[in-house]
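Exam review. A common question shows you a sequence with its structure tokens and asks you to describe the fold in words. Practice with the pair below. Do the first one on your own.
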Amino acid sequence: MKFLITGGAGFIGSHLSEKLLSAGHSVSVIDNLSTGKFINIRHLATNSKFEYVIESILNRELLEKLIKKCDQIYHLAAAVGVKYIIDNPLLSLQTNIGGTENVLELANKYKKKVLIASTSEIYGKSNGVPFTEDSDRLLGSTHITRWSYSSSKAIDEFLALAYHREKKLPIIIVRCFNTVGPRQTGQYGMVIPKFVKNALLNHPLTIYGDGKQSRCFADVEDVTDGMIKLMNTKKAEGEVFNLGNDEEITIEELAKKIKKITNSSSKIEYIPYEVAYEEGFEDMRRRKPDLTKLRKYIDFQPQYNLNKILERIVNYFEE
């Protein structure tokens, strides 16, 4: 088969490209390198079944050519990372909403199956953990920039579901929960690569807020496996799935664990959210997925626990 991966030079997209190529498929990638990096896919460039285009999904004419000749689409392209969203609010909205609109409209024109990568940010600051796919959403004021990302991805989901219901377009939506692994950068606020890099350099590990907020981290290998299995599952069409790991840890505990693994002398420092991001910034205290539905559809079981995940990332940075 021939796959199109939007955002394919990104962290997740590059791993997904590798996996599909290793299975004998052909892969086309489109990425404007706003948060992705060419170095992520450079090792794939000599593969005759791989092609890449450095361009935005807002380029509708080019996107149509790529969609027309593919069999299925993994739509991963999006403005990501809390820091990036806050620094580039308008472009983030245009990319996340306008870009997804382009993908879905053209996919419908040529009747191509689409997997939409959504986010756990959908749930906002709700305390109803673990989150199920039909959980209510609780968001803050529109003056708080970070909620624009959650809202834009919700619009993406509404669009995809509308195309499925009205046009019978085969779509699948996955809400990713903190995907991590080799090649991820801490440049836009991703906590594990930032902590690991600083710990190896014995630089301070900076925690925003009190560090008692908790997250669940999933290895990119497990996440891409889940995406592929869902795309190969007919009954998953028109459905929304949490995708990740349900092993929970506070950010403070995470910093201490990384210090221990790396034998680091780094100090742990705490900075108020308002200093790190913007005045009035709000965060989620807990973000844990309920994976019951995912396991029912594809018998999903993560192969990497947090210790294995951190070991892989530390080895990557050391190399």
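Now try the second one, then compare your answer with the model answer below.
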Amino acid sequence: MSSKYQVVIGLEVHVQLLTDTKIFCGCSTKFGAVPNSQSCPVCLGLPGALPVLNRKVVEFAIRAGLATNCQIAQRSVFARKNYFYPDLPKGYQISQFELPICLGGHLDIEAEGGTKRIGITRIHMEEDAGKLVHVDIPGVGDDSCVDLNRACTPLLEIVSEPDMRSPDEAIAYLKKLHQIVVYLGICDGNLEEGSFRCDANVSLMPKGSAKLGTRAELKNINSFRFIKQAIEYEMERQAEILDEGGKVIQETRLFDPNAGTTRSMRGKEEAHDYRYFPDPDLVPLVVSDDWVEDVRLSLPELPEMKRQRFAKELGLSDYDTEVLTASRELADYFEASLALYPQAKIVANWVMGEVTRALNEENRAISDCPVTPKLLAALLQLIEQGTISGKIAKTVFDEMYKTGHEPARIVEEKGLLQVSDSGAIEQIIDQVLAAEAGQVAAYRSGKDKLFGFFVGQVMKASKGKANPALVNEILLKKLNG
């Protein structure tokens, strides 16, 4: 993009809530059910069916608002947003407009040059629409079917201020928001299933100008990588139009991940196009101060607070705290292990190293890890006691991961006990030094760096079982003697 333009980005994030039932009826929200098997007169919009607000949805909205520094409105109102689409059975969506439940929050992100504050305009509750499924029907050809299982599923829409000035800032904001809603337990954060998806409003303005350009809305993107690609493409597209003297049209565009391009979907509606008015079937929602305080007291420790505590109380580095708090489950696993083996740096290294490596190789969640915190702590105890070496411990860990067996059992069954008999170790060292007479002469002539070579040879000869501390001690005496 030409350096004479500045991109302006605002994001509207849809967060699907982890409630068992929908926002206005008792239908299940379970993903992947048989199409149209989770619907009723309320979510189908049948005449005479009346919505009843799910209290858990309100609680989750308050949690999100408090975690993003919003003001919680004592009085908020549901409105009807009128538009027509095949997957919208009522012909309108129940949402919030003029009086949403949360207002005026912010998130701080790490941006180029330091910390940057991104404003949050509002958070409001709404119902989701259904889903169009495009299929090839034998004898008929391509057709579109509607699955209304998703209709009336509870959503939070989190609307940012247009404060982001690069695709990287947009992704940093999205990742932080994603982490928070998952930590709060209000969303599973599954982007592939559409539980966390984003509309990006992108515009360009001349550098140094205070007047915002005409924006295009990039609709329903559910991948951090695709969101960044879509914004980057849209910046180039708009810059090319402006360079040629044209005008950017305010419209809604779709991103094609295969082509890496956006294409026009429809003209962008303004608020008056939706003909908002208060829903006559739902009374205004009143949230008491006591309710807000109860929710505040139930909030979990959020990632930023957890990172600060890990650094201050445990002495861990910024890198360590960032990795260990990447997910709530990983942080919980680390803390559970630390409670059983209270040496923070050692536990952190094993969780970030062997545990994470094994899980990544199988694309497995930490909640499904066969090596429990209890097993990991028992393994670290064996290292501390000198029962096994750190190198052998990695072999034992792999076997624990495969079988779920206790480390002591694996060590015994496989004969992996560490050799701490100084006489046995001395015998191995003598054999190595006799076989490497030339290297011994080189070491004694001043090539001290060969010491590591000798240690390696002794450990290899002992099949990793020799006590490393004893090896170093005896080897040093032999070489310097």
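Model answer, second protein: The chain has 16 helices and 16 strands. The chain has a mean pLDDT of 91. Full marks require stating both points clearly.
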